[in-house]
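Case study B.
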Amino acid sequence: MQTRFEGRVWTFGDDISTDHIIAGKYLGTTDPKVFAEHAFESVDPTWAKKVQRGDMIVAGANFGCGSSREQAPVALKTLGISAILANSFARIFFRNAINLGFPVVECAGLRDRVKTGDTIELDLAEGEVRIPSGQTLKFTPLPANVLEILEAGGLVPKLRKELHTESTA
Amino acid sequence: MAMFIGRAAPVHPPIPMTGQTMSEKVLARASHAESVRPGQIIDGDVDLLYMHEMLAMALLPFNEIGTMKVWDPEKIVVTLDHWVPPPTPEIAKMHQSIREFCRKQGIRRFHDVGDHGIVHQLIAERGYAHPWQLVIGSDSHTNMVGAVGAFAAGIGATDTAAVMAKGQLWLRVPETMRVDIRGTLSERTGAKDVILKVIGTTGDDAARYAAVEFTGPTVAAFPMNERFVLCNMTTEMGAKVGMIAADDVTKEYLAHSGHEFEPIRSDDDATFLKTFAFDVDGMGPQVACPSNPANLKPVEDVAGTKIDVAFLGSCTNARIEDLRIAAELLRGEKVAPGVRFQITPASQIIYRQALKEGLVEVFMDAGATFTSSTCGPCFGGHMGTLAGDEVCISSTNRNYPGRMGSPTAQVYLASPWTVTASAIHGEITDPRKV
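Model:
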């Protein structure tokens, strides 16, 4: 599992809802490309075109609040966002992202120290983020059971592996 | 007692313990433990899994997991609610895939178009959820069902697939926050105004990861339709679940299910993370202004704001009691010129009841539109979406930018009283003044 990430930052504020991330009118499909194309359209209609693979999102409190639509993290992951760092996450968004093998990290105080376009380095194993000023911010590592899901590449590969182990045991 | 199709298995509560909140009690039972404590990670046996069109998104991960069969088709309920009837060929196809899956998996409680309802309402009114149960739903407003004394939490597509395969879900035992409400509300003021006040005071993430439990004499006096409103919008506090002790009111509401009733409440010596006490004595109608459910103002402060659309619908406020309120105000009145007032009941059962009581005729006489039950307008999906810069007053639950259509539309959240009074006057109106 990849634990070190370096990428360009897109910043967002507090209370970014799943309605901001992918609007309800685009949910009438199961095609991830549709979700990706329209990600954050209500905030910036050209955003999805500007994102490069490996970019990261840094946001304020309560990122991903609102609906349970997994299309929200699917949209961001499909665009190539490598990780999301926020002061805090709404609970369903957090679970959905982890289940997709998509790193989401609560790092209080980071949002105020970076701006869009900065490059940051994230080390999941060490629980550290290095910002352009050279400063390193520590965050509380993910709980063991959550890390296990991430390490397996998501909940589906984890369950597949467990089922396989059970059936061959 | 007669068996009927879809009857949930009886739930036997464990030996009573001390010092546990309601949510801890349910999670202890679900994980076969004597007791659990906040912060602990448990694997809970799911008593009821319910889904809407998210099932279509869960099919791929479910097939990848590879169990082939769901763990127990008798513990699953499926309905279609977000896009009913299907507005595009692609969505009609999505519905087909769900219909086919339910047939193949032997899921008998599949409520197809015609027998549909907004899933939380359908679960509640058909008596599918009960106190002491771990209920998991593929929608954020699953919290609503906690009003019957269940631990009812929303999840996304991959978790849904995992529950279908295993019948279990990992959960972090949440801390419980108590919201204690006392006092007698002003006229034409109800649970929607109370929950908007709570969210407006505590913030839209005050209960992130926590369980919220409503207590106090005002809550105890609320009938079930009002209790559902309180628990429904704990989602807009960030809560994992919203719960209310199961008492005689709950028992009567669930009596038709034929399921054994076991009351549940938090122990007197249970530990609460925090208690928010609200004295709502004399409090009048409240409105959440654009574009956050916590952006609260008393109705007096926004009265006179011109509206283009009024919407009475969603899992939050479109029960028969809400429709009766609309009819009471609309009788002999007309919707203001230039305003469209749409009323969308929360289920087919409510639709039929509204017909029976003559409410639909009142709505039509007044110039309102009455539609089949769907989530459509609430999430900006179909059947009543907002144009750019349109101003809407809505009985729904969220007003983030773009929620009900165009990102520049302005949505005010309010009670059925306030929504209907505003529809008649063409501007946000204090329902006590009409």
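Confidence is low (pLDDT under 50) at residues 1-10 of chain B. The remaining cases will be described in the next quarterly update.
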